[in-house]
Input
Amino acid sequence: MRWMDRRSTLGLMAGVAGSTLLGRGARAEVVAADVPAPGYQIESGAELRVLRPSKFVAGDEKLFLENSEKFAKETGVSVRVDQESWQDLRPKTAVAANVGTGPDIVLAWNDDPHQYPEKILDLTDLADYLGKKYGGWAPLAETMGKTPDGKWICIPVGASGGKMVHRQSWMNEAGFKEFPKDTAGFLELAKALQGIGHPVGFTLGQAEGDANTFCHWLIWSHGAALVDENGKVTIDSPETRQALQYGTELYKTFIPGTLSWLDPSNNKAFLAGEVSVVANGISVYYAAKTSDDPNIKALAEDIQHAPMPIGPVGKPTETALCVNAMIFQHTKYPNAAKEYVRYMMEKDQYQPWQEASIGYWAHSLNAYDGNPVWTEDPKHTPYQKIMTESLPYGYKGPLGYASAGALADYIVVTMVSSAVSGGASIDDAIAEAASRAGRYYR
Output
């Protein structure tokens, strides 16, 4: 598949380059090329309103707001930053798109910009500049940022990727020295952990990040997908049935209540010692590492991060929650908006922001592989190449109105949650998913 071939090649190249540099004793750093800035002429009296998802780690919010204040002081442009809950960001974005008023800039989820290509600005000039200066765009960033005709309609800011966050000591107690690399081994680990009173827990509610991460990994790891490369609905397949049968067995090892979990739920359960394994970004570790509670802070040493296990498909099938900066055409100040996005992506702002959140939002521009945050703590490193190693939620098909709509409708999440929990038969869950997907992919 073109996704895997491309990202694997780039990941290997980046890994070789990185190991060569560090092998020579060079300290990791972000290297930027000498490229002339676009030179946007900021409109007189410009003021901007920015809409973004609410914080999940405190460092993200703190540095984002500080960088916005710096921009305002340096340019004289007033900047208002509004933050919405993860569940409310998409409907608020849709309202702004449909009524033609509201925020100038939105840090939108995943392929949401592809729902409004005719209502947002062409950012190809800005994307070309940033790519040339910072070593090019990661594969997932290119996929998210471009329309099929190669026009950039958003600037991918970063992505939060899901890894298997687990308690090392409990895994050892269950008789495992290393986290299993395949789905068969992982099921055995989950059963063993449940047997010693430490169940696993994966989000199955309508959660933008964690439920999508787990449920898409589950079907992809078995070779299933909602659609094929041409956008034809293919979810009714033997591979989907195999995935849901596996998921049914795995669900038996879950802590009760995961059907209603949202994005904060597994973090809370893990930190409370209620579960041993979750699929999550680095936010669980961040919360433990920065906690004022000595009992929670002590967990940081026991927390480890492992890749999502590889299933029968025989290759990695991880995904990531992306945030993409898009600028509405209804803005009165398009140059100021472009300049703001450029400013926030530049090294002086982006690197400290990434460091403050210990890499919660993995970078979209390759040069930020050199940010020391990825090597100063080995527990950060598994998240370094999220945007090189991850597939888009719309995989295997093209991004556009259909992929964005299907994702927003939680088709895959609903299918998985209903089937594995016994809320619906596997055949009925698949049939419902195929029917719903067909409303988008026509």
Summary: The first helix runs from residue 2 to 23. Strands lie at 47-53, 78-84, 105-109, 155-161, 163-167, 277-280, 303-306, 320-327, 362-363. The chain is about 45% helix and 10% strand. The CA atoms of residues 259 and 330 lie 39 Å apart.
